[in-house]
Design a protein that fits this description.
Elements: E1 5-8, H1 12-25, E2 32-33, E3 39-43, E4 46-51, E5 67-70, H2 73-85, E6 89-90, E7 96-100, E8 103-111, E9 117-123
Helix pairs in contact: 1-2
């Protein structure tokens, strides 16, 4: 259903440091800048972009929005640690298993330096 995800940033250099660290921690590669000044990350068939807002207004995070990345629990731990070290903020509970609604998941949450909410998710199957 989705073709890509994009978040806004007020500081592309700061965002590149953060997202390069988190994508490398989950087994991806550093992002590249396209001719419009957007960061482009491609991993596991998905595309994730970081951009200064086209309308010239400051970037703001979407309240209630979360972008989830599928990965193993080990990748989630590395992703979380790399994100905190690269300027992100750990939010919600520490990385670990959550159960509810008949599901069991390994989750880790971060806010990027611009306030966007990110989630590492692994569905646990018994």
């Amino acid at each position: 259903m989705y073709s890509h995800m994009m978040v806004g940033s007020n500081d592309i250099d700061r965002s590149k440091k953060f997202y390069d660290a988190t994508f490398k921690a989950m087994g991806g590669r550093e992002g590249s800048l396209d001719p419009k000044g957007r960061l482009v990350y491609m991993h596991n068939g998905g595309i994730f972009l970081v951009t200064p807002p086209i309308d010239g207004q400051p970037a703001t995070h979407g309240n209630g929005c979360t972008i989830g990345f599928a990965m193993t629990p080990e990748q989630a731990d590395a992703w979380h640690a790399a994100g905190v070290e690269a300027g992100g903020t750990s939010i919600e509970d520490p990385p670990g298993i959550r159960e509810g609604g008949g599901m069991k998941m390994y989750l880790a949450y971060l806010r990027d330096p611009d306030g966007n909410k990110l989630c590492a998710l692994h569905r646990v199957t018994d």
